[in-house]
Design goal:
The chain is α/β, with parallel strands linked by helices. Helix content is 45%, strand content 12%. Strands 2-1-5-6-10-9 form a six-stranded mixed sheet, with helices on both faces.
C-alpha cells in the first residue's frame, strides 16, 4: 500500500488539505482495495485551519515512512519553515520520496531548496512573490501543475485535484484514476500544461499622472484600430514622448497596453454574451478573427472557445 502523508501547518487552507485526502481516498483498485494509506501529520497535535482547527494524528516522523508527501497551502507562507520541517522534507527527498505542493504550498517546498533549478507553479496571483523570494526556481504561472518527476507543484484549488489524479494515474494506471475522477466529479483529461485562465489586469498608471485621461480614452475606444500616431495625437505628444511616458508611468508601451485592454474586454464578452468569436473580434478592435485568436491565446494562454466554456455565465 502506498502511503500519502499530508503535512498540515498552522494556517493551512481547508480545501488544500481536503483535496488530496478526498482524491486519494476515493481511489480503488480493480478488486476494490484501497491503494493509498492517508496520514495527516504536523509539528503539533492541532493546527489552525481558519474557522476551525485540525487534529493531526501523526508527527513529522510520518514523513520518513511516506511514499508521497503533500504540502497544502497556508494562508500566509512563512519566511522560514517551522523547526524540523525543512530537515524532514530534505531527508525524505534524499530517500526518493515524491513531494507535491498545492497552490501556495509551493512556497513551503521552495523554502527547502528542493525546487532550486527546477520549474514550478503556484496560484497565478502568488507567482510574482514566489519568483521574488526564490529566484533559483523557474516560476511558470501559466500551467495547472508541473511534474518534475520527484517534485510536483500545482496552481489553485481545482488544479490540486488535477495533480492528484495525475499522480494516481502514474501510480496505478488510467482505470484507477478514472474511478477516482468520477467519484470526485472531476474530468480526467485536463493536462498540466493547460493555462490557469489568468484575467490580466491592465498595467496601471499612478492616479493624477499625465496618462490617466489618456488611459480612460483608450479603454473607451479600444474597439477602434488605433495607430500609435493617433494615440499620440489624442495625447498631444510626439510618438517618442508618448512611448517614454508609457514606459515610465505604466511599465509598457501604448500599443501593448491597448492590446491588453482589448483582451480584457474580450474576456468580459466571452463570459457574459453568446456573441460569436467573429463579432467579438470586431467589437474589441482586432478586426480579423485569426488575429484575435492568436493575441488572445498569447495573453490568456488558451483559445477564446475554451475560455468561454470554462467561464461563461448561464446567459
Amino acid at each position: 500500500m502506498h502511503t500519502v502523508a499530508v503535512l498540515a501547518l498552522d494556517g493551512v487552507i481547508p480545501f488544500d488539505l481536503s483535496a488530496p485526502v478526498d482524491t486519494f481516498g476515493w481511489a480503488r483498485l480493480p478488486d476494490g482495495r484501497q491503494p493509498y494509506r492517508l496520514r495527516v501529520c504536523s509539528v503539533r497535535e492541532e493546527v489552525s485551519a481558519g474557522a476551525f482547527t485540525v487534529r493531526a494524528p501523526y508527527g513529522l516522523e510520518a514523513l520518513a515512512e511516506a511514499d508521497t508527501i503533500i504540502l497544502p497551502g497556508v494562508a500566509r507562507p512563512p519566511e522560514e519553515l517551522p523547526p524540523g520541517v525543512a530537515g524532514a522534507l530534505r531527508a525524505a527527498a534524499a530517500n526518493g520520496t515524491r513531494i507535491a505542493s498545492i497552490c501556495v504550498g509551493a512556497f513551503l517546498l521552495a523554502a527547502t531548496g528542493l525546487l532550486d533549478g527546477l520549474r514550478a507553479t503556484t496560484h497565478w496571483i502568488a507567482a510574482p512573490d514566489l519568483a521574488r523570494r526564490h529566484p533559483r526556481v523557474t516560476v511558470d504561472a501559466n500551467v495547472l501543475y508541473v511534474d518534475n518527476g520527484q517534485f510536483l507543484t500545482s496552481a489553485g484549488a481545482a488544479a490540486a485535484l488535477d495533480m492528484c489524479l495525475h499522480m494516481i494515474r502514474s501510480d496505478f494506471g488510467s482505470a484507477v484514476a478514472v474511478h477516482a475522477a468520477r467519484m470526485s466529479v472531476m474530468p480526467l483529461e485536463r493536462e498540466g500544461g493547460q493555462a490557469q485562465f489568468i484575467v490580466h489586469d491592465l498595467p496601471p498608471a499612478p492616479a493624477g499622472t499625465t496618462l490617466e485621461p489618456l488611459l480612460a480614452w483608450l479603454e473607451d475606444h479600444c474597439d477602434r484600430d488605433l495607430t500609435l500616431a493617433e494615440i499620440a495625437a489624442q495625447a498631444g505628444m510626439s510618438t517618442r514622448t508618448l512611448n517614454r511616458r508609457f514606459r515610465e508611468q505604466a511599465g509598457t508601451t501604448p500599443l501593448q497596453w491597448l492590446h491588453r485592454a482589448r483582451v480584457r474586454r474580450a474576456q468580459h464578452l466571452l463570459e457574459t454574451t453568446a456573441h460569436p468569436v467573429e463579432r467579438i473580434a470586431v467589437q474589441t478592435g482586432f478586426g480579423s478573427p485569426t488575429a484575435f485568436r492568436e493575441r488572445f491565446r498569447r495573453v490568456v494562454g488558451t483559445s477564446p472557445q475554451a475560455y468561454r466554456r470554462a467561464f461563461r455565465a448561464g446567459v
